User: What shape does this take?
Amino acid sequence: MHILAQVMRCSGVAIAVALALPAAAQSPPTGAERDTMIQSALSAAPPTLRDTVRVADWNGNTLRDGPAGFTCLPAPPGLAGPMCVDEVWMAWIQAWSSKAPFTPTRVGVAYMLAGDSATGGASNTDPYAATPSATNDWMVEGPHIMVLTPDRATLDAIGPHHHLGGPYVMWAGTPYAHIMVPAGPRPEQRSIPR
Assistant: This one.
């Protein structure tokens, strides 16, 4: 499947799928479009990374080079928000995008400090849900950090209860389970189509 179509079809975390796959033949953006994408991507990063982090677009084109470690991506229309992911998350993204099993070999960290866009978010229960429904516990999260851990007992101890306001596990019971750590206020939630 063409990577942009994959990004537009899937849930909130899809924004970085392109980086885990071969780059598309599309040319990288230039000028104001490139600058806007870089600013969007950097809004996800903590201040300690903003000056040096690598930035890429949805097609895997490097918009700004940086050292190994983290890559930031702008928010595509209608999905989640911008994010900065480490190498463990890149492997997770590749597994998630191909529906392959995944177990992190070490702790992984991803930043989404700009939060989800008002038209974004993701199901808290279904890794492949594309829109809110009455049964998929859709969540539009504010600024947050996401953590991968190889320790399933930690995931079980935290649980999936995002309504309590603290850390919670998204996609519990799947190979893509990860800890969500809210770091700011939540935006208004999307309405569920009837």
DSSP finds six helices and ten strands in the chain. The longest strand covers residues 108-112. The beta strands are 54-56, 62-64, 70-73, 83-86, 108-112, 122-123, 138-139, 144-148, 168-170, 178-182. Residues 1-24 have pLDDT under 50 and may be disordered.
